[in-house]
Amino acid sequence: MSQSTMSKFIDTQINFIARDPALKSAKPYGLRYTPPDGQRRENYKTLKQELRVQDARSLKPHIRTQGFCLANIPSTLQYDEFFQQEKIESVYIKELQSSLRTFFGSQHARVIDYRVSVPL
Predict the structure, then answer these.
(1) Beta strand 9-17 with 46-54: parallel, antiparallel or unpaired?
(2) Where are the domains of the chain?
(3) What are phi and psi of 77, to 5 degrees?
(4) What pTM does this model have?
């Protein structure tokens, strides 16, 4: 789809943790595993909020003013390889760190966390 035919907005939903007096004395938690009998998997409730998200590419946010930026980071990986953990670790992380060093003009850059999303 070309940029000219893409919508500048998308309507979606986002979940927020609902206000709860109990969370003033306890941190919210959510377990990714089935807990032992009697323990709740999470100690909070969520609220869905409708949200309109704007395509930020035309806004050109800058790291110094917005605290983040958007960048086109070249990679030798093919699209399907971005879903392969071993390819990300052996190729893309190194490419990303190199791009970050160039962008920030630094000698060192380290990716300390990432998530591989599996397509639906």
Answers:
(1) antiparallel
(2) 1-59, 71-120
(3) -70, 145
(4) 0.57
